[in-house]
Specification:
743 residues, alpha+beta, TIM Barrel, Immunoglobulin-like, 3 domains, ten-stranded antiparallel sheet, 13 helices, 41 strands, globular
């Protein structure tokens, strides 16, 4: 058979007399599809980068409908379900044309599919590949070219058949204060789903990310892995189909959750589904993580290659008890410790109804004269006079029923007019209806008015403390109520784009009762995300360990809280708290004045030391060394390595004491075997008593192959002046080591 090869950057096209095979390729992976006009689009292969002819020769080619629709093979999983104006649900998509282009290192291939029975329905299936990282994206666009509306009942972004029936799934799940728990389990026969209906807080219980180990296991370094994440700020839905039929692939489909979201697509209108991002590697989930992190920092996260400041947030220190005196003291104290940013959290606003608790004032974004009689500007000036920056908390999508805004605009909230709404935080909180253009202007105005009046505000903390409990829009017509979930999310995106167009440089943290909005779809608009309200450092080990599977360290806020955790009723020593928070974006969440003299001295050193390792933590490649979920489960260790592999920082933690676990070896990763590395302990508990390994020079080969013995490094220091209320503990010990190549 005669073939002609046409190469367009990373998209390769081979043409035969029967069909066209397309290989969408990154530097190390390829995805192959087959398209022929008038025939279904077929998925053929996803795996290591390869030539089309070699995949044929190896017998690795599948033949699976790349975008199956309900109507022709109804007993099989389908990605598309459409109801025509006459009630017809049967759809058969066939290829109409294929388009391809390249722009700034991103190669894109679009296959247009048309419904045979209803030619006015067009679906474009998009594949994109990056030339600088192993990332492939997929999404779809539905276009109604007819004169009457159609209803989209299922409209997935992506379909990915995976050539394995022995997969192990890693997903993240949890709840408030217990986010991002790793769950790893075999993908047994049947259908496994990961989905959410929380609306405005889509990551509250499940996360829109996953990894699949393809040979019956999933480890850090030596197994084939497919990882994926969805770029969507609303309800999502993942399906994993494992039939165990001989030769049948494991099928993944992902996109917007179709539950209660039949989307009416009017004549001449279109709907573009969110992008699904995939990476493939044979080098374990560690490499999958590093690929996602690099791509996020470079291509998705706003200011992803910039370092983040050390901050103090007022919330856990004073909660709603904001006053000019308390804020002044905290601002000065964090500056003295070496912090770089002070953030006034909830409680500063409410001209008519002062914000003293969660029951009032949301929507009324004027300064409370009782709380801050001289306004915000003196605090901004104070921060600048102390050499630091200033930030403030907002929750602009929300309103309390006791507020001036609600009194004026009760029709601006989501609620059904015929029954009492379900309230959120404080028993009075409601979600504003973002589908209403007037509400969109209001939410934008909250940010615009604040930054116009106070242009020196450097940082905003944008919170969201309520799910979409009342799924009824007083703005949308009755026949479009099922569009609410999607249109609400698209409206939020529209607002955020508008804010970023006017204020591209302001730093905005995304918070949602902690990690309720931890999702790649928010990254173009928020420099960082608050990982969890849980600041117990022992618990944070697990939360951050899980989150770091998918999310880069520079976007994960991690704060040093008080020694005593209100959530767990546990005391944790200050060094352990600092070392845990230092593996992400370091901050503080307490009243610094409550530190004793030893703790204050240590905090100064720890902040100063973090600044020396910050480039490694926030921009380095992550290597997980010892999981807190595996082995004896009383140790955890990870490290970050820079691109040149001449500097690294290693974190190690003993979570609790176990007598028989007295010879744990930590083997480094990511270093140069032939290089020699000088070891320096970062912020030792006592400045004049670093660990015995401090100053040693060890080869990369020994560090990676032989490793270092952990218990000796974590031996309890003896002192008559402990740094916290925790005395004589062997639990919650930690060490941070900087490795620098000796040249």
């Amino acid at each position: 058979m005669r073939k002609i090869a046409l190469i367009l950057s990373s998209i390769c096209l081979a043409i035969s007399a029967q069909a066209k095979d397309y290989a969408i390729s990154t530097p190390n992976s390829s995805l192959i599809i087959t398209a022929k006009e008038g025939k279904p689009l077929y998925f053929r292969y996803y795996g290591s980068r390869a030539e089309i002819k070699d995949i044929y020769s190896a017998g690795r080619m599948l033949k699976y409908n790349a975008y199956p629709a309900f109507g022709t093979n109804c007993n099989m999983p389908y990605a598309s379900l459409v109801k025509q104006h006459n009630g017809d649900n049967a759809v058969k998509f066939v290829v109409e044309k294929v388009e391809q282009n390249e722009n700034n290192g991103l190669s894109k291939l679009t296959v247009s599919l048309r419904d045979v029975a209803h030619p006015s329905l067009l679906v474009k299936v998009n594949y994109s590949a990056y030339s600088d990282c192993d990332i492939i994206k997929m999404n779809t666009e539905y276009i109604n070219e007819g004169k009457k509306p159609v209803v989209l009942q299922k409209y997935m972004s992506s379909v990915l058949p995976i050539q394995s029936d022995n997969c192990v799934l890693l997903q993240l799940e949890g709840c408030h204060g217990n986010e991002c728990n790793e769950r790893v389990a075999p993908l047994t026969e049947g259908v496994h789903t990961i989905s959410t209906q929380c609306g405005s807080r889509p990551a509250l219980y499940q996360n829109a990310s996953f990894m699949l180990g393809l040979d019956g296991r999933i480890d850090e370094t030596n197994c084939p892995v497919v990882a994926g994440t969805l770029l969507w700020m609303g309800n999502f839905h993942f399906e994993f189909h494992n039939t165990h039929i001989a030769g049948a692939p494991t099928l993944f489909m992902g996109g917007i959750n179709p539950a209660a979201s039949d989307y009416t697509l009017a004549s001449k209108k279109s709907l573009t589904t969110p992008e699904m991002v995939f990476t493939y590697t044979n080098n374990g989930k560690g490499e999958a993580t590093r690929t996602l992190h690099r791509w996020a920092r470079k291509h998705q996260l706003i200011d992803g290659t910039k370092e983040r400041e050390i901050l103090l947030n007022s919330w856990e220190g004073v909660h709603f008890d904001i006053s000019e005196t308390s804020m002044t003291d905290m601002c000065r104290d964090i500056a003295k410790l070496g912090g770089e940013l002070f953030v006034v959290d909830d409680g500063w606003f409410g001209p008519k109804y002062p914000r003293n608790n969660g029951k009032t004032s949301l929507g009324d974004w004027g300064v409370s004269p009782q709380k801050l009689p001289n306004g915000i500007q003196p605090l901004i000036d104070l921060a600048h006079s102390n050499g630091i920056k200033f930030g403030i908390w907002i929750e602009p999508e929300m309103v309390n029923s006791k507020s001036e805004l609600y009194e004026k605009h009760p029709d601006w909230v989501l609620r059904h007019p015929d029954f009492e709404p379900t309230y959120g935080r404080g028993g009075t909180q409601l979600l504003l209806d973002l589908t209403n253009p007037k509400v969109q202007d209001f939410v934008f105005g909250v940010v615009d008015d604040l930054l116009t009046k106070y242009p020196d505000i450097y940082y905003l903390k944008w919170d969201n403390n309520m799910c979409m409990q009342n799924a009824y829009s007083q703005y949308l017509p009755t026949e479009l109520q099922s569009n609410l979930s999607v249109d609400f999310t698209l409206a939020l995106e529209k607002i955020l784009k508008r804010i970023r167009a006017k204020y591209p440089k302001v730093v905005i943290q995304l918070c949602s009762s902690g990690g309720g909005r931890l999702n790649y779809g928010y990254m173009p608009y928020f420099q960082e995300m608050w990982t969890s309200d849980q600041t117990d450092a022992f618990h944070r080990i697990y939360i951050q360990w899980g989150a770091l599977n998918f999310y880069p360290a520079n976007m994960l806020g991690a704060h040093v809280g008080s020694a005593f955790s209100k959530y767990t009723q546990r005391f944790i020593p200050i060094k352990f708290r600092f070392d845990v928070a230092s593996m992400c974006r370091l901050g503080m969440e307490m009243v610094p004045a409550k530190l004793n003299d030893g703790e204050r001295e240590y905090a100064k050193r720890a902040f100063a030391e973090y600044k020396t390792i910050r480039p490694l933590v926030q921009q380095g490649d992550l290597y997980r060394l010892v999981s807190p979920h595996e082995g004896t489960k009383n140790y955890a260790s990870l490290m970050y390595v820079n691109e040149a592999k001449d500097k690294a920082v290693l974190f190690a933690y003993r979570l609790f004491t176990w007598r028989r676990a007295n010879h744990i070896i930590i083997r480094a990763q990511g270093l140069k075997e032939n290089a020699m590395y000088r070891i320096r302990e970062v912020a030792p508990e006592y400045a004049n008593k670093p660990a015995k390994i401090n100053g040693k020079v060890i080869s990369g080969r020994v560090l990676m192959q032989e490793g270092i013995v952990l218990p000796e490094l974590l031996a309890t220091q003896n002192s008559t002046e402990p740094l916290s209320d925790v005395r004589g503990v062997n639990d919650y010990r930690s060490i941070v080591l900087e490795l620098t190549e000796v040249k």
